[in-house]
Amino acid sequence: MTNRRGFIKNTAALATLSVIAPVLNSCGIAMDETEKEKKRIFPQKLKKGNTIGLITPGSPITKKQLDEAVNKLKNKGFKVYYKDTVLSKYGYLAGKDKERADELMGMFSNENVDAIMCVRGGYGSIRILNKLDFKIIQANPKILIGYSDITALISTIYQKTGLVTFHGLLGVSPFNDFSYKAFESVLINPTAIFQYPYLRESETTENPEFDQYTINNGIAEGELIGGNISVIDSMIGSDFEPDFENKIVFLEEIEEKTYRVDKMLYHLLYATNLKKASGIALGVFSHCNINDEPRLTLKQAIEDLLKPLKMPISYGLPFGHIDNIVTIPTGVKARLDANNNTLTLLEMAVV
Q1: Annotation marks residue 252 as catalytic
Q2: 276 — phi, psi (to 5°)?
Q3: 118 or 6, greater pLDDT
Q4: Catalytic annotation, pick one of 252, 253, 256, 286
Q5: pTM, whole model, 2 decimals?
Q6: Quick check: 335 and 219 in contact, CB under 8 A?
Q7: Active-site position among 26, 148, 173, 278
Q8: Which range, of 208-217, 228-237, 283-292, 298-307, averages the lowest pLDDT?
Q9: What are the residues facing 167 on neighbouring strands?
Q10: Is 253 a catalytic residue?
């Protein structure tokens, strides 16, 4: 009887703790309720004639870059809206932090804006994360697209609000046939199941960075999350650190020496829950097979770290700082077939 009373007492205490104790992420940081039990929100699909708002949450742009982005979107049948702040400059940033945060929040609040596209990446998005109103974003869901530095926004907004966001074209990106068709297939004319096409960049046959290969065989399923590895690495230990558990994690990089890619990947493996991912889809690590003597190739470094993991892993999928990129929705369920180096969306990312 005494043991039973003790058991009941201890059980009651544990139950109380489970109610009052915060849920922690992999670094022991408390997760809020929206992050812990988010409900996914799918934005409205794009239609010709919709208005796309242009923003610069990272590095500054030139008037020429803005004009080119506007013309590309208008030629595809969209209207374009932007504020004067899109051309702001503050050193290596496109305006002060509050200005850039206000620009993004204004696009979400503006009922005449149907989707939001970042003109370029660079650096700076991480500096505005703590200035965003996630409740306003959640109440005004719409497409947000970009890549590189924009990883900070697409990852965090999805985790904090449940809004599906998009790793894809920037305003400065080439709107070539391959990239724009992939954009259309996800955002304009979606299908219930969509396998991403593949087209190797021209004049890269001698460049191993553009090779496709399997690191670990197998098939994985899960929600997609990821982006630029150096941006994700800079978020580790913060309240904005991505949750990789049971996810298909997609990663890419540009112009980092091989040892730096090695270091960042190692950091993700041992400072986050990346080892609990369902699978890892690696894009093209452009200009990263750069070595000082003695040499260790990019492929060797990546395989040394990832091959011991018991999950499907593929390298060379069509995303990254390259011309032929696909549009990847963060938060949407997908299948990674590492045996055949394919990635397939298992549901539509827009409604």
Answers
A1: yes
A2: -95, 10
A3: 118
A4: 252
A5: 0.89
A6: yes
A7: 148
A8: 283-292
A9: 146, 328
A10: no
Per-residue model confidence (pLDDT) at position 1: 40
**Cβ distance 56 to 181 under 8 Å?**
no
5-16 pLDDT per residue, tens: 343 334 433 343
Dihedral class, residue 214 (left if φ above 0, else alpha if ψ from -120 to 50, else beta): beta
Query: What gap in Å lies between CA 108 and CA 106, rounded to an integer?
Result: 5
Three-state DSSP state, 175: coil
Q: Is 185 a catalytic residue?
A: no
Q: Which amino acid is at 339?
A: N
302 CB-near residues (< 8 Å, 6+ apart): 215, 261, 262, 265, 282, 285, 315
Q: How confident is the model at residue 132 (pLDDT cuts 50, 70, 90)?
A: very high
Nearest Cα to Cα of residue 314 among 226, 242, 250: 250
Please state which CATH number belongs to domain 51-187: 3.40.50.10740
Q: What class has domain 194-345?
A: alpha beta
Q: What is the DSSP-derived secondary structure letter of residue 131?
A: G
pLDDT at 291: 80
Contact 195, 340 (CB under 8 A): no
Counting every residue, how long is the chain? 351
Contact 169, 179 (CB under 8 A): yes
Dihedral of the CA atoms 217, 219, 220, 225 (nearest 10)?
70
Domain range annotation of the chain = 51-187, 194-345
d(CA 7, CA 4): 5
* Residue 78 tokens, joined: 């969209």
Residue pair 284/211 in contact (Cβ under 8 Å)? The answer is no
Are 126 and 152 in contact by the 8 Å Cβ rule? The answer is yes
- Taking each helix axis from N to C end, the angle separating 298-306 and 258-271, rounded to the nearest 10 degrees, works out to 10
Average pLDDT over residues 140-166: 98
333 vs 9: which has the higher pLDDT: 333
Contact assessment for residue 343 and residue 334, using Cβ atoms and an 8 Å cutoff: yes
